[in-house]
């Protein structure tokens, strides 16, 4: 896929991984739409990225299908097309299962898993027209379970399974579907504040490079599931 003037929509694109991918793809010549729950924050991030003719900031709560449908409509209205979608929005609540609240459970399932479905459901007709690409941001937690991670594991195992099945459903339309499964990434996830201590981790721009490489892959070839880790774990 030639990236010049192609349009990408990134959920959870106002900071962290989503923002890093947006910056990388903007530099590669794409037009960018990013969303977050707060419109002011999304518009501020879009302005920081660059030219308003090439960048659009939107508010959307991915746990609500109507929000994603409205976001896609605004993207089509501004850019006239949609070629790539990165379902990146996610939250994490970590606690032993006997202590996890119903609210925390539903927040993760509604955002991490239902949100991925809503984003695809809202964008799939546009992607059929463009023969586009749908990419989900899962996690190594989507294949490796851990203590205190039951809710997060459930949501990310679901994202991986959803993405692989959607890939089989949609390739007849020449739509590619991939899921990226990172390990530790420097981001604001779970209220973390990035610092120099995170230098050993995967950086947001590294995920951006993976996305760019996927988009430039020859159309005959589909890396459908990509695991990525820091080269060396933190030395503690």
UniProtKB/TrEMBL annotation:
PROSITE patterns in the record: ADH_SHORT (PS00061)
Top-level taxon of the source organism: Bacteria
BP term (GO), one: monocarboxylic acid metabolic process
Ranges in coiled-coil conformation: none
Pfam families hit by this protein: adh_short
Sequence similarity: Belongs to the short-chain dehydrogenases/reductases (SDR) family.
Protein name (record): NADP-dependent 3-hydroxy acid dehydrogenase YdfG
Lineage per the UniProt record: Bacteria, Pseudomonadati, Bacteroidota, Flavobacteriia, Flavobacteriales
């Amino acid at each position: 896929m030639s990236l010049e003037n192609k349009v990408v929509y990134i959920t959870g694109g106002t900071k962290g991984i989503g923002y890093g991918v947006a910056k990388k793809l903007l530099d590669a010549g794409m037009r960018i739409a990013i969303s977050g729950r707060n419109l002011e924050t999304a518009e501020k991030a879009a302005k920081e990225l660059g030219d308003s003719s090439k960048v659009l900031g939107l508010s959307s709560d991915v746990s609500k299908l109507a929000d994603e449908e409205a976001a896609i409509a605004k993207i089509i209205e501004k850019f006239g097309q949609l070629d790539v979608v990165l379902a990146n929005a996610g939250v994490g609540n970590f606690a032993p299962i006997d202590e996890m609240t119903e609210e925390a459970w539903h927040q993760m399932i509604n955002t991490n898993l239902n949100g991925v479905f809503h984003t695809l459901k809202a964008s799939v007709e546009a992607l059929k027209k463009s023969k586009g690409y749908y990419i989900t941001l899962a996690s190594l937690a989507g294949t490796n379970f851990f203590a205190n991670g039951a809710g997060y594991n459930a949501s990310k195992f679901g994202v991986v399974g959803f993405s692989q099945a959607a890939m089989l459903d949609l390739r007849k339309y020449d739509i590619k579907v991939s899921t990226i499964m990172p390990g530790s990434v420097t981001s604001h996830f779970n209220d973390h504040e990035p610092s120099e201590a995170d230098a050993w981790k995967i950086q947001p721009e590294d995920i951006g490079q993976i996305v760019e490489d996927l988009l430039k892959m020859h159309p005959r070839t589909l890396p459908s599931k990509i695991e990525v880790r820091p080269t060396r774990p933190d030395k503690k």
